Amino acid sequence: MLNKAHIHVPKTSSPMMCHPCLAGKVSKLPFPQHHHKFTSPFATIHTDLWGPAPCISVDRYRYYTIFVDECTCYC
C-alpha cells in the first residue's frame, strides 16, 4: 500500500523503535516479598492520593485519599 502511494520505507532487519517504546516493553522483576508482619495497629500506615477526578462528586470533591493500616488492613 505504501509503495502504491510512492512512500519509501527502508527495509531493515530490525524494526525502528524509539527509546521510550523499548523501555515500555522491558519486563521488570516483581517487588521483593517482605516477611515482617506488624502486630500493632497504626504501626505503619500506607496512603494514596488520587485526582483530579474527571467528574466532580455530589459534594464537589475532585481529589480522594485512602489510608490503609498495615496490621489490620483497615481502610
Can you describe this structure?
The structure is a single chain. The chain is mainly beta. Helix content is 9%, strand content 16%. The chain contains 1 helix and 2 strands. Strands 1-2 form a two-stranded antiparallel sheet. The relative contact order is 0.17. The model has no long low-confidence stretch (mean pLDDT 81).
List descriptors.
75 residues; mainly beta; two-stranded antiparallel ribbon; 1 helix; 9% helix; elongated
Strand arrangement within the widest β-sheet reads 1-2
Residues in helices, as a percent range: under 10%
How far the N terminus sits from the C terminus, by CA atoms, comes to 56 Å
Give the assembly state of these chains: single chain
- Structural class designation: mainly beta
Main sheet properties: 2 strands, antiparallel
Shape: elongated
Beta-strand share of residues: 15-25%
The H-and-E topology, N to C, reads as HEE
Mean pLDDT: 81
Rg of Cα set: 24 Å
Q: Using DSSP, what is the number of strands? A: 2
Low-confidence segments, ≥5 residues, pLDDT <50? none
Q: Helix count, per DSSP?
A: 1
